[in-house]
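Submission sheet (multi-component)
Chains listed below:
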Amino acid sequence: MSRARRLGLVLVAPALALLVAGVVTTVVLLLAGDDVGAFWDVMFTAPAARNLSNIVNNAVVLYLSGMAAAIGFRMNLFNIGVEGQYAVATFTAALFAAQAWLPGVVNTLATLVVAMAAGAAWAGIAAVLKVTRGVSEVISTIMLNAIAVSLVAYLLRTTGERQQQTIETRPIPKDSWVGGVDVFSGSTTPVHGLAVLALLVGIATWFVLGWTRFGFDLRATGQSESAAVASGVNVKKMVLASLLLSGAVAGLIGMPNLLGVSHNFGTTLQVGIGFTGIAVALLGRNHPLGVAFGALIFAWLNEQSNPLGILAGISNDIIFITQGVVVLSVVIAYAVVQRYERRMEQRHVMAALERAGLAEEARA
Amino acid sequence: MSTTSMAGRRDSNSRVTKVLDKVRETRLWLLLSLLLVTMSATRIVTGADDLTSAGTLQAALISSVPIALAGLGGLWSERAGVVNIGLEGMMILGTLGAGYFAYHYGVWAGLLGGMLLGAFGGVLHAVATVVFGVDHIVSGVAVNIIAAGSAGFLAELLFSGLEGGGPTQSPSLPKPPTITLPGISDAARDIADQGWFLVSDLAALVASLTTRMSVVTLLAIALFLATAFLLWRTSFGLRLRSCGENPQAAETLGVNVYLYKFVAVTVSGVLAGLGGAYLAMVASSGYSNGQTLGLGYIGLAAMIFGNWRPGGLFLGALLFGYTYAARLRSGGESVHALLLIAALALLVVAVWQLSRRSWVGGSVAGVIGLAALWWFTATDEVSSYFTEMTPYVATLVVLTVAAQSLRMPAADGRPYRRGTAG
Amino acid sequence: MTTTPEDVGAGSTTGTVAVALRDIGKSFPGVRANYDVSLDVASGTVHALCGENGAGKSTLMKILYGIQKPDEGTIAVAGEEVSFASPSDAIAHEIGMVFQHFQLADNLTVTENVVLGAEKLHGIGAKAEAEIRRISDSYGFGLDPDELVEDLGVGERQRVEILKVLYRGAKIIILDEPTAVLVPQEVEALFRNLRDLKREGHTLIFISHKLDEVLAIADEITVLRRGTAVATVKPSEVTARRLAELMVGEELPSPSTSESTVTDRPVLRVEDLTVHDDSGRVVLDAVDLTIHAGEVLGIAGVEGNGQTELVEAVIGTRRASSGVVRLGDKDVSDWGTRRRRDSGVGYIPEDRQRHALLLDSPLWENRILGHQTRAPSVRGMLINRGGARDDTKRIVDAYDVRTPGIDTTARALSGGNQQKLIVGREMSGEPSLLVAAHPTRGVDVGAQAAIWEQIRKARHLGLAVLLVSADLDELIGLSDSLKVILRGRLVSDFDPQTVTPQQLGSAMTGADEGAA
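Outcome: structure written.
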């Protein structure tokens, strides 16, 4: 089957999913007695420069979260613990950067490394449990999420400094900050300087997965563990590597915000990014480019729905329903498309062989 | 090549299983007795009275029911071969359903409403996995996302204007009736208050069971018994379990595998929904955002711990429920005492492993055991940040220790399409 | 009601027609499994369906049993036209099927497996057990209703399958390749049971590609080739050779090898190898063997006697508890699979779909599988796409892999072509040792001949081959030396030039009944 045809099939699924989500959202709003017209008005208002900045910033964060999940998914490992890994890593990074053991930019770079290491370590706990005792990573990472919340709160309490109503870590010295970039002129909020991280992660993932031996081993294990084992892959090492990498990327999620905007870790940490990241990964079918589109779509949905409460009197929680329906529809659509693809492929092979005059034997 | 493997668990009515079951049963009773004695001794030694107080045990029972119901839901689904990670989401829908229907239409409507909404979540998962063949875990995660989002939106919609309610919580809900056996209850309480070794603890146990026992708890226990009967003693149950063991074989014998899987997953949604309703109505005073706190997943862990059988599942749920409750009442003290038990247990395991030359296992257990012991002696009580973690750490520990000797249904989690038989 | 069938050859001369198929056609995506198939099965007879792998026999029977619906054609049972929507309908018409791959749930008992779907007949408790015991006793099956299927041997499992069918009152019993997993002595026992059933008035449809067995048991034989029925004959009218020619449409190639190419340079040495399974049982017991360059060592044995574990221990996917594995001069006992394969071991696994292929990946990516550390697929740490693609094209040409291109996914190829690709891939690594487990299982005759030829050629160039197979002809034809594995031990040595299938069979079962 031609690549163009394959690509077309793959795009049908998310398009369909968005359509279905739109329909379901409308129905829900109707049943709730909300103003459907106003909803669509607000959603399709052209975003201002400020909104565009926010969308990009949000998309960057969601992209990192999505890629963290996607790396695991490629190996059939469900790292639901992105949330916890991100919290642990962001806290550790904030603490480290504030110590300023290293000067300026070096400190910044070191902080990024520390964040990745911390995220990897937290994911590593689940990895070790899976590899040594066969504990399902789905449950263990979820448990670790809950543990992380308490642990980080405790550590913040003991190492943080009290501000008026909140506790925060000591601020990072100015020369380690990463300034914003004014991509959209007229916007009051700049785009995160570290947005480039998203690009780097995407390119690195694409390259490693598609062009390196390690990436081949990883994809093979995800497709068929039995075949990978017979081909010489050490599955335990793969599971470890995959979860560690996933955790490392998860560690980067908080970095654009930490080093660019907030400069310390406080009780105002964004929650829910881990789960939205999983949704974005599923939407993007775990592919670096797909996840990017997914992140942009979700970020756009989030931003546009912010003023729903004020402008249309609708609770902006509705957008979570939309996002949830998108995810469920898209995974169903992908499952259907995959089966259809396979049948088409077999038909195509049959036809091509008959054309070439090589009759294919019947299969019992 | 005929061999009878004594290792591993079996799941059927064979003679061998019956004998193994008896052995396991006796061993279980011994372990439980040992546990009771240990807890009692620890209580006296550490002075953590709430470790085995009637109040704590009651709270433990109440905390364990939602876990048990979620786990039971997981059991139904996995016995038919479908992994159900979406239990958490179905439970959330259950809490919401209870919040709405109980407030407007009364107690029983609340329970039914919770089950209905849970069923809705179950149907979503069933459609995705059984009809469309989506990967089970992916579908479960998607269902969780929808459920969480819907609950948030609907809560604001349904509860904002109500008195006592708000955008993230419902007003107080009517409580289902409870049963108290006055004579026994009072007597037991008296004995429990005396603080005597073992006797008082047993009395506390009796007291917790005879004081304000919610009717819904009894319903849950009845559901457990019904499940055990239905799944292991009826044709319906045999067919359902065959779908989880070898769906292709079942298909060749004319069993409609799709139907059984669909029913099983929907039932799992109903049970999780009931668990949510219980959570909102009995364990708490109403619906509030995010109140499930991972209980759905802990229910799955209880199911794994129970080796996919109702009896073991219930025990696991009690265990996890206890860790939930222990931190609520004088949490710091109780968890501190639990540390001692954990430390001693780990050291025993370490010695046993080392004696069998399992160096790695033994040293790991030993190091953690010593660390726990040091923590115990170095502090008087455990800070609330850490008591919060207790149920989750307990889940991890239990899964880690129990993992190897368990056996799940043979075709659990594997995608099934009709016509692939032969 | 006597009907004279219209097809070529013979016809049933007595009694009624139990099953009449007319113009049956069935297609799957990319494959035309059956077309224009017509045949009559006389009641109270054993009717055999012959054909090579992929001729359409199983599909036809699945249609008769209601698992598939025909695209064209009609089915008549006892004179009445029927249409089956599911196996339940077929069962209601007294048709039962014993599948080639047993449809049994390991974790359930014999009783539970038998009563599944037929609980209304005798319940699921004591009454059902009594009935099972009755059937088992009257045919001498020797089955215990309470036993877990997991604990049963191959022969016993097959008898459970037959019991399932009898329990439901089947009068017409379809057996799909029932002797595929049996040794000659067990085949005899099975045939005794089948003759008893025939005497009781049952009609048996027997699918097989083992021609001497077919000639021994059948009253009538229908030959399928490429999806359609080409002849219906009586055993007295044909020889095995003639049947084979009908099946293939041309002369059958034989796997016999001519002159010896065995050298005295050992390539693989296994010394005192012992392997335990997860529950501590011994599955390989102090096994010793040596294979020299240019030698094919065949291992014969009933499934489940340790051959799989032997292959896994040699290839490195299973840890041995004790003993040594040597490749050439090196002790590789502690080496992982990758290292062993890199040092010149090729591997054709028993189950190609699970162990040798990435079904949803294109062919050129499958070329890399198992060879991810060497040229031409790899350059340093990176994948060499160009190199892999070029080499895949070479293999497709050299090994006659029928595919429109190298971007086709592996799943879309037929079994024979998949296997040819795998053989081509493994040979490309220029291995010194080839571990081949059931290398022509489920492969059409053309591909089978091609694969045998490739092995012979490589052997001539000094390749050492460890050949595990259930196809006695393949073993006898390809091997230079032949050993039998029984209960984890290598028990007998045979000379392939002089051994008979009966001798092999005795050694494979240990010559004491009920051993497997």
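Remark: The CA atoms of residues 271 and 288 of chain C lie 5 Å apart.
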